[in-house]
Protein backbone atom coordinates (compact mmCIF):
# COMPACT_ATOMS: atom_id res chain seq x y z
CA UNK A 1 0.00 0.00 0.00
CA UNK A 2 1.33 3.42 -0.96
CA UNK A 3 2.41 5.80 1.79
CA UNK A 4 2.02 9.40 0.62
CA UNK A 5 4.39 11.88 2.11
CA UNK A 6 6.58 14.92 1.75
CA UNK A 7 10.11 15.64 0.60
CA UNK A 8 11.10 18.62 2.75
CA UNK A 9 14.31 20.45 1.88
CA UNK A 10 15.73 23.48 3.71
CA UNK A 11 18.48 25.43 1.93
CA UNK A 12 20.82 28.28 2.68
CA UNK A 13 23.08 29.50 -0.15
CA UNK A 14 26.59 30.36 0.99
CA UNK A 15 27.64 34.02 0.78
CA UNK A 16 29.82 33.57 -2.31
CA UNK A 17 27.07 31.95 -4.41
CA UNK A 18 25.40 34.53 -6.69
CA UNK A 19 21.70 34.67 -5.90
CA UNK A 20 20.72 34.50 -9.59
CA UNK A 21 22.76 31.32 -10.08
CA UNK A 22 21.15 29.68 -7.06
CA UNK A 23 17.59 30.44 -8.16
CA UNK A 24 18.12 29.76 -11.86
CA UNK A 25 19.66 26.36 -11.12
CA UNK A 26 16.88 25.35 -8.77
CA UNK A 27 14.00 26.73 -10.86
CA UNK A 28 15.20 25.55 -14.27
CA UNK A 29 17.12 22.38 -13.52
CA UNK A 30 16.61 20.85 -10.10
CA UNK A 31 12.88 21.31 -9.52
CA UNK A 32 11.56 20.54 -13.02
CA UNK A 33 13.76 17.44 -13.13
CA UNK A 34 11.83 15.95 -10.23
CA UNK A 35 8.42 16.89 -11.61
CA UNK A 36 9.18 15.03 -14.85
CA UNK A 37 8.65 11.95 -12.66
CA UNK A 38 4.97 12.72 -12.10
CA UNK A 39 4.29 9.27 -10.67
CA UNK A 40 6.56 10.25 -7.77
CA UNK A 41 6.21 14.04 -7.52
CA UNK A 42 2.80 15.49 -8.49
CA UNK A 43 3.97 18.99 -7.53
CA UNK A 44 6.77 21.06 -6.05
CA UNK A 45 7.07 24.49 -4.45
CA UNK A 46 9.68 26.87 -3.11
CA UNK A 47 9.12 29.16 -0.15
CA UNK A 48 11.12 32.03 1.33
CA UNK A 49 11.26 32.64 5.07
CA UNK A 50 9.32 35.56 6.53
CA UNK A 51 10.63 35.14 10.10
CA UNK A 52 14.20 36.39 9.48
CA UNK A 53 15.61 32.99 10.39
CA UNK A 54 17.91 30.73 8.42
CA UNK A 55 17.81 28.57 6.36
CA UNK A 56 16.03 31.15 4.21
CA UNK A 57 14.63 28.83 1.53
CA UNK A 58 12.40 25.80 1.71
CA UNK A 59 11.46 23.37 -1.05
CA UNK A 60 8.45 21.10 -0.58
CA UNK A 61 7.44 18.23 -2.84
CA UNK A 62 4.40 16.03 -2.32
CA UNK A 63 5.36 12.37 -2.82
CA UNK A 64 2.84 9.77 -3.97
CA UNK A 65 4.66 7.00 -2.09
CA UNK A 66 7.76 7.64 0.00
CA UNK A 67 9.05 4.15 -0.84
CA UNK A 68 9.66 5.45 -4.39
CA UNK A 69 12.41 7.68 -3.02
CA UNK A 70 14.52 4.54 -2.62
CA UNK A 71 14.09 3.38 -6.22
CA UNK A 72 16.93 3.57 -8.72
CA UNK A 73 15.11 5.97 -11.05
CA UNK A 74 15.04 8.53 -8.25
CA UNK A 75 18.42 7.87 -6.66
CA UNK A 76 20.03 8.14 -10.11
CA UNK A 77 18.88 11.76 -10.23
CA UNK A 78 21.04 12.51 -7.24
CA UNK A 79 23.91 10.26 -8.26
CA UNK A 80 24.27 11.59 -11.82
CA UNK A 81 24.09 15.33 -11.41
CA UNK A 82 25.05 17.74 -14.15
CA UNK A 83 28.31 19.60 -13.72
CA UNK A 84 26.42 22.84 -13.11
CA UNK A 85 24.23 21.26 -10.44
CA UNK A 86 27.22 19.71 -8.71
CA UNK A 87 29.05 23.05 -8.71
CA UNK A 88 26.02 24.94 -7.43
CA UNK A 89 24.76 22.57 -4.76
CA UNK A 90 28.27 22.44 -3.33
CA UNK A 91 27.74 26.08 -2.39
CA UNK A 92 24.44 25.47 -0.61
CA UNK A 93 23.85 24.17 2.91
CA UNK A 94 21.10 21.59 2.55
CA UNK A 95 19.00 19.65 5.03
CA UNK A 96 16.74 17.06 3.42
CA UNK A 97 14.00 15.17 5.30
CA UNK A 98 11.31 12.71 4.29
CA UNK A 99 7.94 12.53 6.05
CA UNK A 100 4.92 10.24 5.89
CA UNK A 101 1.43 11.76 5.88
CA UNK A 102 -0.56 11.21 9.11
CA UNK A 103 -3.53 13.56 8.87
CA UNK A 104 -4.96 16.11 6.45
CA UNK A 105 -7.84 18.57 6.55
CA UNK A 106 -8.63 21.40 4.13
CA UNK A 107 -11.07 24.23 3.58
CA UNK A 108 -14.01 23.28 1.34
CA UNK A 109 -12.86 25.93 -1.12
CA UNK A 110 -9.25 24.78 -1.04
CA UNK A 111 -7.53 24.32 -4.41
CA UNK A 112 -4.03 22.83 -4.64
CA UNK A 113 -1.40 25.45 -5.40
CA UNK A 114 -0.32 23.73 -8.60
CA UNK A 115 -3.84 24.16 -10.00
CA UNK A 116 -3.75 27.94 -9.44
CA UNK A 117 -2.18 30.51 -11.71
CA UNK A 118 1.01 32.11 -10.46
CA UNK A 119 -0.92 35.33 -9.84
CA UNK A 120 -3.56 33.56 -7.74
CA UNK A 121 -0.99 31.50 -5.81
CA UNK A 122 1.23 34.49 -5.06
CA UNK A 123 1.35 35.44 -1.40
CA UNK A 124 0.30 32.04 -0.03
CA UNK A 125 1.65 31.73 3.52
CA UNK A 126 3.05 28.61 5.15
CA UNK A 127 3.38 27.95 8.89
CA UNK A 128 5.51 24.94 9.79
CA UNK A 129 6.07 23.37 13.21
CA UNK A 130 8.76 20.73 13.66
CA UNK A 131 8.02 18.90 16.90
CA UNK A 132 10.35 16.27 18.34
CA UNK A 133 8.49 14.02 20.79
CA UNK A 134 10.06 12.54 23.89
CA UNK A 135 11.90 9.30 23.35
CA UNK A 136 11.46 8.17 26.94
CA UNK A 137 7.66 8.44 26.84
CA UNK A 138 6.17 5.65 24.73
CA UNK A 139 2.74 7.27 24.27
CA UNK A 140 4.12 10.73 23.40
CA UNK A 141 3.46 10.52 19.67
CA UNK A 142 -0.01 9.04 20.10
CA UNK A 143 -1.10 11.67 22.62
CA UNK A 144 0.27 14.53 20.54
CA UNK A 145 -1.41 13.25 17.37
CA UNK A 146 -4.75 12.74 19.15
CA UNK A 147 -4.72 16.34 20.44
CA UNK A 148 -3.70 17.63 17.04
CA UNK A 149 -6.44 15.83 15.13
CA UNK A 150 -9.25 16.24 17.67
CA UNK A 151 -8.72 19.81 18.85
CA UNK A 152 -5.94 21.77 17.20
CA UNK A 153 -6.86 21.40 13.51
CA UNK A 154 -10.46 22.29 14.25
CA UNK A 155 -9.39 25.51 15.94
CA UNK A 156 -6.92 26.38 13.18
CA UNK A 157 -9.70 25.96 10.63
CA UNK A 158 -11.50 28.93 12.23
CA UNK A 159 -8.62 31.30 11.48
CA UNK A 160 -9.55 33.62 8.58
CA UNK A 161 -7.65 32.66 5.44
CA UNK A 162 -6.96 29.09 6.59
CA UNK A 163 -6.63 26.74 3.61
CA UNK A 164 -5.20 23.40 4.69
CA UNK A 165 -3.38 21.70 7.57
CA UNK A 166 -1.39 18.50 7.25
CA UNK A 167 0.47 16.49 9.88
CA UNK A 168 3.43 14.30 8.95
CA UNK A 169 5.86 12.07 10.87
CA UNK A 170 9.44 11.16 10.04
CA UNK A 171 9.57 8.38 7.48
CA UNK A 172 11.52 5.21 8.32
CA UNK A 173 13.48 5.86 5.13
CA UNK A 174 16.94 6.92 6.24
CA UNK A 175 16.53 5.36 9.73
CA UNK A 176 15.96 8.56 11.73
CA UNK A 177 17.11 8.40 15.34
CA UNK A 178 14.24 10.55 16.65
CA UNK A 179 10.56 10.90 15.77
CA UNK A 180 9.62 14.33 14.47
CA UNK A 181 6.07 15.42 13.78
CA UNK A 182 5.79 18.08 11.11
CA UNK A 183 2.67 20.22 10.89
CA UNK A 184 2.27 22.23 7.70
CA UNK A 185 -0.53 24.80 7.47
CA UNK A 186 -1.30 26.95 4.43
CA UNK A 187 -3.01 30.32 4.60
CA UNK A 188 -4.23 32.75 1.96
CA UNK A 189 -2.42 36.02 1.32
CA UNK A 190 -4.94 37.82 3.52
CA UNK A 191 -5.34 35.88 6.76
CA UNK A 192 -5.94 36.03 10.49
CA UNK A 193 -2.53 34.87 11.71
CA UNK A 194 -1.95 36.53 15.06
CA UNK A 195 -5.63 37.38 15.38
CA UNK A 196 -8.05 36.19 18.10
CA UNK A 197 -8.92 32.87 16.44
CA UNK A 198 -5.27 32.07 15.96
CA UNK A 199 -4.34 33.05 19.52
CA UNK A 200 -7.15 30.87 20.86
CA UNK A 201 -5.77 27.86 18.97
CA UNK A 202 -2.35 28.45 20.53
CA UNK A 203 -3.61 28.59 24.14
CA UNK A 204 -5.78 25.74 25.42
CA UNK A 205 -5.38 23.51 28.50
CA UNK A 206 -5.06 20.41 26.33
CA UNK A 207 -2.31 22.00 24.24
CA UNK A 208 -0.42 23.05 27.39
CA UNK A 209 -0.66 19.53 28.81
CA UNK A 210 0.50 17.84 25.60
CA UNK A 211 3.37 20.25 25.11
CA UNK A 212 4.63 19.73 28.66
CA UNK A 213 4.27 15.98 28.69
CA UNK A 214 5.08 14.87 25.13
CA UNK A 215 7.31 17.44 23.45
CA UNK A 216 11.08 17.44 23.67
CA UNK A 217 11.80 20.25 21.19
CA UNK A 218 9.82 22.43 18.86
CA UNK A 219 10.61 24.96 16.11
CA UNK A 220 8.12 27.20 14.35
CA UNK A 221 8.90 28.69 10.94
CA UNK A 222 6.89 30.96 8.65
CA UNK A 223 7.27 31.27 4.88
CA UNK A 224 5.76 32.91 1.83
CA UNK A 225 5.41 31.18 -1.54
CA UNK A 226 8.39 31.92 -3.77
CA UNK A 227 8.01 29.70 -6.85
CA UNK A 228 5.76 26.95 -8.21
CA UNK A 229 7.52 24.29 -10.26
CA UNK A 230 6.21 22.81 -13.48
CA UNK A 231 7.64 19.78 -15.29
CA UNK A 232 9.62 22.05 -17.65
CA UNK A 233 11.99 24.99 -17.05
CA UNK A 234 10.62 28.50 -17.62
CA UNK A 235 12.52 30.91 -15.34
CA UNK A 236 13.92 33.57 -17.67
CA UNK A 237 14.01 36.21 -14.95
CA UNK A 238 16.96 34.79 -13.01
CA UNK A 239 18.62 33.51 -16.18
CA UNK A 240 18.70 37.09 -17.46
CA UNK A 241 20.99 38.06 -14.58
CA UNK A 242 23.63 35.43 -15.32
CA UNK A 243 26.75 36.23 -17.35
CA UNK A 244 26.34 36.01 -21.13
CA UNK A 245 26.91 32.36 -21.88
CA UNK A 246 25.23 29.12 -22.79
CA UNK A 247 25.05 25.79 -20.99
CA UNK A 248 23.44 22.46 -21.71
CA UNK A 249 22.37 19.85 -19.20
CA UNK A 250 20.44 16.61 -19.25
CA UNK A 251 18.34 15.07 -16.55
CA UNK A 252 20.53 12.19 -15.47
CA UNK A 253 20.42 8.64 -16.70
CA UNK A 254 16.76 8.35 -15.69
CA UNK A 255 15.66 10.85 -18.31
CA UNK A 256 15.46 10.47 -22.09
CA UNK A 257 19.03 10.22 -23.37
CA UNK A 258 18.42 12.39 -26.43
CA UNK A 259 16.61 15.18 -24.62
CA UNK A 260 18.60 17.98 -23.08
CA UNK A 261 17.97 21.47 -21.86
CA UNK A 262 20.02 24.45 -23.01
CA UNK A 263 19.93 27.85 -21.37
CA UNK A 264 21.51 30.89 -23.00
CA UNK A 265 21.95 34.55 -22.21
CA UNK A 266 23.02 36.77 -25.08
CA UNK A 267 23.33 40.49 -25.57
CA UNK A 268 21.69 42.08 -28.61
CA UNK A 269 21.84 45.82 -29.25
CA UNK A 270 22.72 46.38 -25.62
CA UNK A 271 19.79 44.32 -24.30
CA UNK A 272 20.06 40.94 -22.59
CA UNK A 273 18.07 38.10 -24.15
CA UNK A 274 17.70 34.93 -22.06
CA UNK A 275 16.47 31.74 -23.70
CA UNK A 276 15.56 28.19 -22.67
CA UNK A 277 15.41 25.26 -25.08
CA UNK A 278 13.94 22.13 -23.52
CA UNK A 279 11.00 19.75 -23.84
CA UNK A 280 7.73 18.70 -22.25
CA UNK A 281 6.27 15.20 -22.22
CA UNK A 282 2.58 14.76 -22.97
CA UNK A 283 0.47 12.94 -20.42
CA UNK A 284 -1.69 11.34 -23.10
CA UNK A 285 0.98 9.28 -24.86
CA UNK A 286 4.45 10.28 -23.61
CA UNK A 287 5.41 12.34 -26.67
CA UNK A 288 8.41 14.62 -26.15
CA UNK A 289 7.67 18.08 -27.54
CA UNK A 290 10.66 20.39 -27.80
CA UNK A 291 10.18 24.09 -27.19
CA UNK A 292 12.10 27.35 -26.92
CA UNK A 293 11.11 30.13 -24.52
CA UNK A 294 12.83 33.51 -24.81
CA UNK A 295 12.31 37.25 -24.99
CA UNK A 296 11.08 39.41 -22.13
CA UNK A 297 12.20 37.68 -18.92
CA UNK A 298 9.29 38.81 -16.75
CA UNK A 299 6.93 35.94 -15.88
CA UNK A 300 4.11 38.46 -16.24
CA UNK A 301 5.13 39.48 -19.79
CA UNK A 302 2.51 38.83 -22.50
CA UNK A 303 3.38 35.63 -24.36
CA UNK A 304 3.10 35.02 -28.08
CA UNK A 305 3.39 31.41 -29.28
CA UNK A 306 4.24 30.04 -32.73
CA UNK A 307 3.10 26.76 -34.26
CA UNK A 308 5.20 25.48 -37.17
CA UNK A 309 4.09 23.85 -40.39
CA UNK A 310 4.35 20.14 -41.13
CA UNK A 311 7.92 18.99 -41.87
CA UNK A 312 9.50 22.14 -40.41
CA UNK A 313 10.86 22.85 -36.94
CA UNK A 314 10.44 25.71 -34.51
CA UNK A 315 13.42 27.32 -36.28
CA UNK A 316 11.23 28.23 -39.24
CA UNK A 317 10.28 31.25 -37.12
CA UNK A 318 13.90 32.40 -36.60
CA UNK A 319 13.75 35.40 -38.98
CA UNK A 320 10.50 36.67 -37.46
CA UNK A 321 11.69 36.14 -33.89
CA UNK A 322 14.73 38.31 -34.56
CA UNK A 323 12.38 41.10 -35.65
CA UNK A 324 10.14 40.62 -32.62
CA UNK A 325 13.03 40.89 -30.19
CA UNK A 326 13.75 44.35 -31.56
CA UNK A 327 10.24 45.57 -32.33
CA UNK A 328 8.41 44.00 -29.38
CA UNK A 329 10.79 43.67 -26.42
CA UNK A 330 7.72 43.49 -24.17
CA UNK A 331 6.86 40.00 -25.44
CA UNK A 332 7.83 36.61 -24.12
CA UNK A 333 8.20 34.28 -27.12
CA UNK A 334 7.32 30.58 -27.15
CA UNK A 335 8.01 28.23 -30.03
CA UNK A 336 7.60 24.46 -30.09
CA UNK A 337 8.02 21.57 -32.52
CA UNK A 338 4.62 20.28 -33.53
CA UNK A 339 3.85 16.58 -33.23
CA UNK A 340 5.58 14.64 -36.01
CA UNK A 341 8.79 16.64 -36.20
CA UNK A 342 10.59 14.09 -34.04
CA UNK A 343 10.15 10.45 -33.06
CA UNK A 344 6.66 9.43 -32.01
CA UNK A 345 5.79 7.16 -29.04
CA UNK A 346 5.07 3.46 -29.45
CA UNK A 347 2.54 2.48 -30.52
CA UNK A 348 2.18 5.50 -32.80
CA UNK A 349 -1.22 7.05 -33.32
CA UNK A 350 -2.46 9.19 -36.20
CA UNK A 351 -2.68 12.88 -35.35
CA UNK A 352 -5.86 14.93 -35.56
CA UNK A 353 -6.34 18.67 -35.24
CA UNK A 354 -7.85 18.08 -31.81
CA UNK A 355 -4.73 16.16 -30.76
CA UNK A 356 -2.47 18.92 -32.08
CA UNK A 357 -4.47 21.56 -30.20
CA UNK A 358 -4.31 19.43 -27.04
CA UNK A 359 -0.52 19.22 -27.42
CA UNK A 360 -0.27 23.00 -27.24
CA UNK A 361 -2.59 22.99 -24.24
CA UNK A 362 -0.17 20.61 -22.49
CA UNK A 363 2.83 22.76 -23.41
CA UNK A 364 1.14 25.77 -21.80
CA UNK A 365 0.25 23.75 -18.70
CA UNK A 366 3.81 22.50 -18.30
CA UNK A 367 5.13 26.05 -18.54
CA UNK A 368 2.35 27.40 -16.31
CA UNK A 369 1.22 29.84 -18.97
CA UNK A 370 -2.43 30.51 -18.23
CA UNK A 371 -3.22 32.47 -21.37
CA UNK A 372 -1.41 33.45 -24.55
CA UNK A 373 -1.56 37.03 -25.68
CA UNK A 374 -1.39 35.73 -29.26
CA UNK A 375 -0.92 32.50 -31.20
CA UNK A 376 0.54 32.41 -34.71
CA UNK A 377 0.54 29.32 -36.91
CA UNK A 378 1.13 28.43 -40.54
CA UNK A 379 -0.07 25.57 -42.78
CA UNK A 380 -0.78 22.63 -40.44
CA UNK A 381 0.12 25.09 -37.69
CA UNK A 382 -2.50 27.49 -39.09
CA UNK A 383 -5.18 24.82 -38.88
CA UNK A 384 -3.94 23.94 -35.38
CA UNK A 385 -4.14 27.61 -34.40
CA UNK A 386 -7.77 27.92 -35.48
CA UNK A 387 -8.61 24.59 -33.87
CA UNK A 388 -6.97 25.76 -30.62
CA UNK A 389 -8.93 29.04 -30.67
CA UNK A 390 -12.16 27.09 -31.11
CA UNK A 391 -11.38 24.47 -28.49
CA UNK A 392 -9.62 26.62 -25.85
CA UNK A 393 -10.91 30.18 -26.34
CA UNK A 394 -10.01 31.16 -22.78
CA UNK A 395 -6.32 30.43 -23.35
CA UNK A 396 -5.61 32.82 -26.20
CA UNK A 397 -6.28 36.52 -26.68
CA UNK A 398 -5.93 36.65 -30.50
CA UNK A 399 -4.57 34.52 -33.31
CA UNK A 400 -2.93 34.76 -36.71
CA UNK A 401 -3.59 31.74 -38.93
CA UNK A 402 -1.57 31.55 -42.14
CA UNK A 403 -1.62 29.61 -45.42
CA UNK A 404 -4.11 26.86 -44.59
CA UNK A 405 -7.56 25.72 -45.59
CA UNK A 406 -10.52 25.41 -43.24
CA UNK A 407 -11.33 21.94 -44.62
CA UNK A 408 -9.48 19.09 -46.32
CA UNK A 409 -10.38 17.41 -49.60
CA UNK A 410 -10.20 13.88 -50.93
CA UNK A 411 -7.56 14.94 -53.46
CA UNK A 412 -5.45 16.45 -50.71
CA UNK A 413 -5.70 13.27 -48.66
CA UNK A 414 -4.39 11.21 -51.56
CA UNK A 415 -1.57 13.69 -52.08
CA UNK A 416 -0.41 13.15 -48.47
CA UNK A 417 -0.49 9.37 -48.93
CA UNK A 418 1.63 9.73 -52.05
CA UNK A 419 4.12 11.88 -50.14
CA UNK A 420 4.40 9.25 -47.41
CA UNK A 421 5.43 6.72 -50.06
CA UNK A 422 8.12 9.08 -51.30
CA UNK A 423 9.46 9.72 -47.78
CA UNK A 424 9.55 6.02 -46.84
CA UNK A 425 11.27 4.93 -50.06
CA UNK A 426 14.77 3.47 -49.83
CA UNK A 427 14.56 2.83 -46.12
CA UNK A 428 13.41 6.34 -45.28
CA UNK A 429 16.05 8.22 -47.22
CA UNK A 430 13.30 9.33 -49.58
CA UNK A 431 12.62 12.16 -47.12
CA UNK A 432 15.44 14.05 -48.87
CA UNK A 433 13.64 13.71 -52.19
CA UNK A 434 10.41 14.81 -50.56
CA UNK A 435 12.21 17.83 -49.09
CA UNK A 436 13.36 19.04 -52.50
CA UNK A 437 9.91 18.52 -54.01
CA UNK A 438 8.15 20.19 -51.09
CA UNK A 439 10.29 23.31 -50.89
CA UNK A 440 10.06 23.78 -54.65
CA UNK A 441 6.28 23.70 -54.36
CA UNK A 442 6.16 25.94 -51.28
CA UNK A 443 8.19 28.92 -52.39
CA UNK A 444 7.36 31.84 -54.66
CA UNK A 445 9.43 31.92 -57.90
CA UNK A 446 11.16 35.10 -56.74
CA UNK A 447 12.33 33.29 -53.58
CA UNK A 448 13.61 30.29 -55.53
CA UNK A 449 15.51 32.52 -57.95
CA UNK A 450 16.85 35.19 -55.60
CA UNK A 451 17.15 33.69 -52.12
CA UNK A 452 19.18 30.53 -52.51
CA UNK A 453 20.34 30.46 -48.89
CA UNK A 454 16.78 30.53 -47.57
CA UNK A 455 15.76 27.76 -49.98
CA UNK A 456 18.71 25.55 -49.02
CA UNK A 457 18.20 26.04 -45.30
CA UNK A 458 14.53 25.15 -45.55
CA UNK A 459 15.31 22.08 -47.66
CA UNK A 460 17.73 20.88 -45.00
CA UNK A 461 15.14 21.54 -42.29
CA UNK A 462 12.51 19.46 -44.10
CA UNK A 463 14.95 16.64 -44.88
CA UNK A 464 15.79 16.34 -41.15
CA UNK A 465 12.19 15.47 -40.23
CA UNK A 466 11.53 12.10 -38.61
CA UNK A 467 9.99 9.88 -41.30
CA UNK A 468 7.62 7.99 -39.00
CA UNK A 469 6.70 11.26 -37.33
CA UNK A 470 5.72 12.66 -40.73
CA UNK A 471 3.68 9.56 -41.57
CA UNK A 472 1.50 9.87 -38.49
CA UNK A 473 1.30 13.65 -38.14
CA UNK A 474 0.27 14.42 -41.73
CA UNK A 475 -2.88 12.39 -41.14
CA UNK A 476 -4.22 15.39 -39.21
CA UNK A 477 -4.67 16.97 -42.64
CA UNK A 478 -6.41 14.02 -44.30
CA UNK A 479 -9.96 14.41 -43.14
CA UNK A 480 -10.94 17.53 -41.24
CA UNK A 481 -13.55 20.25 -41.59
CA UNK A 482 -13.51 23.34 -39.40
CA UNK A 483 -16.03 25.27 -41.51
CA UNK A 484 -19.15 24.26 -39.54
CA UNK A 485 -17.62 25.76 -36.38
CA UNK A 486 -15.71 28.82 -37.54
CA UNK A 487 -18.72 31.10 -37.13
CA UNK A 488 -18.64 30.29 -33.40
CA UNK A 489 -15.07 31.55 -33.00
CA UNK A 490 -14.99 34.15 -30.22
CA UNK A 491 -11.26 34.87 -30.38
CA UNK A 492 -10.20 37.81 -32.60
CA UNK A 493 -8.25 36.51 -35.57
CA UNK A 494 -6.31 37.57 -38.62
CA UNK A 495 -5.77 35.41 -41.69
CA UNK A 496 -2.54 35.74 -43.69
CA UNK A 497 -1.50 34.12 -46.96
CA UNK A 498 1.43 34.35 -49.32
CA UNK A 499 0.45 35.85 -52.67
CA UNK A 500 1.78 32.93 -54.67
CA UNK A 501 0.79 30.03 -52.39
CA UNK A 502 -0.55 27.30 -54.67
CA UNK A 503 -0.08 29.75 -57.55
CA UNK A 504 -2.75 31.90 -55.97
CA UNK A 505 -5.24 29.10 -55.32
CA UNK A 506 -4.90 29.34 -51.55
CA UNK A 507 -5.57 33.08 -51.64
CA UNK A 508 -8.97 32.33 -53.21
CA UNK A 509 -9.65 29.49 -50.76
CA UNK A 510 -8.93 31.67 -47.71
CA UNK A 511 -10.97 34.54 -49.15
CA UNK A 512 -13.79 32.02 -49.37
CA UNK A 513 -14.01 31.39 -45.62
CA UNK A 514 -12.56 34.60 -44.14
CA UNK A 515 -15.99 36.23 -44.09
CA UNK A 516 -17.47 33.35 -42.12
CA UNK A 517 -14.81 33.30 -39.38
CA UNK A 518 -16.22 34.80 -36.19
CA UNK A 519 -19.39 36.80 -35.78
CA UNK A 520 -18.33 39.53 -38.20
CA UNK A 521 -15.81 37.79 -40.44
CA UNK A 522 -12.05 38.20 -40.42
CA UNK A 523 -9.61 40.21 -42.50
CA UNK A 524 -7.26 38.41 -44.90
CA UNK A 525 -3.80 39.93 -45.35
CA UNK A 526 -1.84 38.97 -48.48
CA UNK A 527 1.98 39.04 -48.35
CA UNK A 528 3.36 39.93 -51.80
CA UNK A 529 5.93 37.80 -53.63
CA UNK A 530 5.83 34.97 -51.12
CA UNK A 531 4.45 31.47 -51.18
CA UNK A 532 3.52 28.97 -48.47
CA UNK A 533 5.85 30.26 -45.74
CA UNK A 534 5.78 34.05 -46.03
CA UNK A 535 7.37 34.54 -42.59
CA UNK A 536 10.43 32.60 -43.80
CA UNK A 537 10.58 33.96 -47.33
CA UNK A 538 10.19 37.63 -46.37
CA UNK A 539 10.03 38.15 -42.61
CA UNK A 540 9.94 41.94 -42.93
CA UNK A 541 6.92 41.86 -45.25
CA UNK A 542 5.17 39.36 -43.02
CA UNK A 543 5.82 41.54 -39.98
CA UNK A 544 4.27 44.51 -41.75
CA UNK A 545 1.20 42.39 -42.43
CA UNK A 546 0.68 41.41 -38.79
CA UNK A 547 2.30 44.29 -36.88
CA UNK A 548 -0.87 46.29 -36.24
CA UNK A 549 -2.90 43.23 -35.26
CA UNK A 550 -0.32 41.93 -32.81
Element layout with pairings:
Blueprint lengths: L4 E9 L5 H17 L9 E5 L7 E7 L8 H8 L3 H7 L2 E15 L11 H4 L3 E9 L6 H17 L5 E9 L9 E8 L8 H6 L3 H10 E14 L7 H4 L5 E5 L11 E8 L2 E11 L6 E8 L7 E5 L10 H10 L4 E5 L16 H14 L7 E5 L1 H12 L7 E4 L7 H15 L5 H13 L2 H6 L1 H12 L3 H7 L9 H4 L6 E6 L6 H10 L9 E4 L6 H4 L1 H8 L4
Parallel strand pairs: 13-14, 13-15, 15-16, 16-17, 17-18
Antiparallel strand pairs: 1-3, 1-4, 2-3, 2-8, 4-6, 5-7, 5-8, 6-7, 9-10, 10-11, 11-12, 12-14
Helix pairs in contact: 1-3, 5-7, 10-11, 12-13, 12-16, 13-15
**What share of the residues lie within helices?**
25-40%
Distance between the first and last residues' Cα: 53 Å
Oligomer: single chain
Into how many domains do the coordinates divide? 2
Number of helices: 20
Order of strands in the sheet with most strands: 9-10-11-12-14-13-15-16-17-18
Low-pLDDT segments, ≥5 res: 252-257
InterPro entries: AB_hydrolase, AB_hydrolase_1, AB_hydrolase_fold
Domain AB hydrolase-1: 316-544
Protein name: 3-oxoadipate enol-lactonase
